[in-house]
Automatic annotation (TrEMBL):
PANTHER family: SPERMIDINE/PUTRESCINE IMPORT ATP-BINDING PROTEIN POTA, SPERMIDINE_PUTRESCINE IMPORT ATP-BINDING PROTEIN POTA
Domain ABC transporter residue range list: 3-233
Descriptive protein name: ABC-type quaternary amine transporter
The keyword DNA-binding is assigned to this record: no
Segments of skewed composition (Polar residues): 314-324
Gene Ontology terms: cellular component: ATP-binding cassette (ABC) transporter complex
EC number(s) reported in the record: 7.6.2.9
UniProt keyword Translocase present: yes
Gene Ontology molecular function: ABC-type quaternary ammonium compound transporting activity; ABC-type sulfate transporter activity; ATP binding; ATP hydrolysis activity
Enzyme class: translocase
Residue segments, region Disordered: 313-336
Amino acid sequence: MSIEISQVGKHFGDFVALDDVSVGIPAGRLTALLGPSGGGKSTLLRIVAGLERADTGRVEIDGVDATNLPPQKRNVGFVFQHYAAFKHLTVRRNVAFGLEIRKRSKDEITRRVDELLALVHLGQFAERLPSQLSGGQRQRMALARALAVEPTVLLLDEPFGALDAKVRKELRDWLRRLHDEVHVTTVFVTHDQEEALEVADEIVVINEGRVEQIGSPDDLYDRPANEFVMRFLGPVTQLGDELVRPHDLQLTADGADSTGVAGRVTRITRIGFEIRVEVTTSGGQPVTVTLTRNEFHALGIQVDSPVRIRVTPGSPTTTVTAPAQRSEEPTFARSH
């Protein structure tokens, strides 16, 4: 079921949470709303769910104007970051809750709950209380409960943000597999770039209440629309007035090549399978280059070695709007 968001605006007092936002979310796809904290992505998700009312604009779900419909009339499933479990009910009863209040038959409830518990790999924990589950298991229970009523749209608000990195990674993989099985239109909010790039079919980058770019993970990473998108989606460094990925820079020993920008190695750091080489150009600009271990050893360079740097032809670059004071650290932002 597709979602059409047209010219949606939302204010909280003088604060502009959303400014004339228009987004089309394709049916059956897994779409990420990605952006920094306070950028408006959770507000947009809550407006789609009916938990917030937009000041302006329109929301359609499967061709039906849902702008003024209450949440219970929109047939959406919503999963929060902190599970919102009924602590006194078993896992089975938590998953069954939405079906029970809809007065479904006992046989239908039993069948549906059993199917979902098997789908999320919680069948053996059906009679446990939420407090007896791990954080990852509780989040899977929350997803099963949201799916129980067969929503046309599944909305997830930073569903893995409260979990540690290892469990987040496991649940990202699981969510992708689950979506491929159930094919429900899914929208999830995250500020973790790696999570969005790994899981989503399509990413909507939102910043300061506006949509910066919409596209596939490859589109956004390889063809960023502007400086913000490039800086936000992955590691960057600056060479001259161009913003570029550190792995898209070529490094050669000075003397072996006369092209590119001259510089001198100031620091070498190994990070797992990568070698991070920090170079200061002859003009005093700090630049970070990321190499594989084999590439680094083939160069035969060390701290204070003269080198030359150039951008690999065809690599994505963006002209910066103001001189950078330092090279950006080439790391992904992490959930917190």
